[in-house]
Amino acid sequence: MVPLVFSVVIVLLALFLAMSAIKIVPQGYEYTVERFGRYTRTLKPGITILMPFMEAVRRKVSVMEQVLDVPRQEVITKDNVTVQVDAIVFIQVMDAAAAAYRVANLNYAIGQLTMTNLRTVVGSMELDEVLSQRDQINTRLLTVIDEATGPWGVKVARIEIKDLQPPPDITNAMARQMKAEREKRAVITEAEGERQAAVTRAEGAKQSAILQAEGRKEAAYRDAEARERSAQAEAAATKSVSDAIEAGSVNALNYFVAQKYVEAFAKLADSPQQRTVIVPTDMGSIAGAIAGITILTPFVEGVGRKINMMEQVLDVPSQEVITKDNVGVKVDAIIFIVVMDAAAAAYRVARLDVAITQLVMTNLRTVVGSMELDEVLSQRDQINTRLLNVIDAATGPWGVKVARIEIKDLQPPPDITNAMARQMKAERERRAVITEADGEKQAQITRAEGAKQSAVLQAEGRRSAAFLDAEARERAAQAEAKATQLVSDAIEGGSVNAINYFIAQKYVDAFAKLAESPHQKTVIVPAEMSALVGSLAGIQELVR
Predict the structure, then answer these.
(1) Do strands 154-165 and 400-411 pair parallel, antiparallel, or not at all (unpaired)?
(2) Where are the beta strands (DSSP E) in 191-287?
(3) Which residues on adjacent β-strands are paired with residue 316?
């Protein structure tokens, strides 16, 4: 019985010694080994045998990249504004021994170091610079903290400002300032539109007046030319008739006057009445998941992390970001990621999803905070591209490929939205007023050009008519002169009673047509017709 108990004790002691001597270090960690309290070496991932009772593992250090939260604190800026600031720090232990023995409580030391330097950097800048120059703050902090933590065996990969919150009264004042700026732009835009419209209308009126004056000038020139030509024709006709009269007898002239008088009565009978009338899914990816079956060695190998290699979508929570022109907007986003290296994703960073989300949130604040509101609202593609470049470069060492980053929503405050709507309405109204004024201007110019062309064409017509009338008048005068000459020759060689007979006959015929006309007319006939026809005294005798 005793030998059996002794054997069991020996076996248990051997098991105890084996368990204390054999150490398995998981991937992503390094262990420090001390011999009698003094550091001797660092254990890498894998299996290692220690000397029982002499060597022991003291510190288990994670060499994966970690995310440390820097607590929120109040910082006074250069222009005496108190802002609340917090941040995150991405660190990776490069030397486990230095991280374990060069500083006590590594995470606390880095957090305190970041907080103090954050106060220093932010305190040296004015509020507007703090809100718009996050990249510079991050760069300055990274340089200082990385240099300070180098002796601790730590590499600071990134430092990002998470949030910057001015006091509520300052935020309200900034919002009021932005609202006033938007309203100022709206008022200026409206005034600019009215000014431009007034200038355009004035230019249209000016062009219209100039064109109308040019038309009147051209018409006056054409009328003057026509009048001169008509006067020349009148003078030529008068001269021709005078010469004919001087060369012939006055009785011939009396004959033609009497003839025209009778013809006028005939036309009176035939004239009409005048009236005025007012008138599919790719199933190959599912089959591709069966890449093969791996056989593990029992008790020696085990499954450490299960990594999803499909493309995943991560939601970035909505957060309020202050833009460069001091407007607080709510922003959220989505990230499309694919794990390319399962080992790196499992062991290079702790809590991969949280690290990527925090990284995107901080960079989203940095990018949006460096742009004005109008740029943020109109340049989403640029924001997405900048975020994608930064995040993809930062997550590359983690074995992750960032396929896309998309801004989901951007929500300015309601008062800013209303001011923007008013500004846009004013801009649209300004364009409408300018367009209407430009249309009125073009219409006035077109009407003036039409009036000018009409006046010119009418003047051309009058001038052409005057020229034709002058030619006709000259021809008629020539005919009149020739007729007068012929009649004079006839009268000198004949009897006046024959002329009286023909005149009387035409006179009677005219009254006959007047009687037969269906139109009602009142005709006043002079009692003494001989007064009208001059020397034609024989008409009375023929009537008797």
Answers:
(1) unpaired
(2) none
(3) 333
Residue 525 has what DSSP assignment? -
Collapse the DSSP code of 90 into the 3-class scheme (helix H, G, I; strand E, B; otherwise coil) and give the result: strand
* Cα–Cα dist 91/87, whole Å: 13
CB 99 within 8 A of CB 154: yes
- Token digits for 164? 């910057």
Q: How far apart are alpha carbons 335 and 402 in whole angstroms?
A: 7
The whole-angstrom separation of Cα 472 and Cα 479 is 10
Determine the Cα–Cα distance for residues 117 and 342; give it in Å rounded to an integer: 36
**1 to 6, 8, 15: CA distances (angstroms):** 9, 11, 21
Q: Hey, is 314 helix, strand or coil? A: strand
Q: How far apart are CA 488 and CA 486, in angstroms?
A: 5
Q: Which amino acid is at 380?
A: R
55 forms bridges with which residues in the sheet? 35
- Angle (nearest 5°) at CA 359 between 416 and 123: 65
Terminal-residue alpha carbon distance, the chain: 193
Residues 40-70 pLDDT 10s: 999 998 888 888 888 888 889 998 889 999 9
> What pLDDT digit, counting tens, does each position of 60-97 carry?
999 888 999 999 998 888 888 888 999 999 999 999 99
- Give start and end residues of each alpha helix (H) in 494-528: 496-516
What are residue 418's phi and psi, to 5 degrees?
-65, -40
Pairing state between β 29-35 and 328-339:
unpaired
Give the DSSP per-residue string, 370-431: TS-HHHHHH-HHHHHHHHHHHHHHHHGGGTEEEEEEEEEEEE--HHHHHHHHHHHHHHHHHH
pLDDT at 467 over 70: yes
Element (H, E) at 70: strand 66-76
H-helix or E-strand spanning residue 121: helix 106-123
User: How many C-beta neighbours within 10 Å does residue 138 have?
Assistant: 19
Q: What are phi and psi of 335, to 5 degrees?
A: -125, 135
Q: Cα(37)–Cα(305) distance, rounded to whole angstroms?
A: 34
Tokens standing for residue 246:
């001087």
Q: Distance between alpha carbon 134 and the CA centroid of its chain, in Å?
A: 29
222 close to 460: Cβ distance less than 8 angstroms: yes
Cα 405 to Cα 507: distance, rounded to the nearest angstrom = 109
pTM greater than 0.90 (yes/no): no
* CB 133 within 8 Å of CB 370: yes
φ/ψ of 154, rounded to 5, equals: -120, 140
Q: Would the CA dihedral through 167, 169, 171, 177 be positive or negative?
A: negative
Q: What letter would DSSP give residue 37?
A: T
Q: What does the DSSP assignment read for 97-108?
A: HHHHHSSSSHHH
Q: Select from 360, 413, 408, 419 the least CA-distant residue to 380.
A: 408
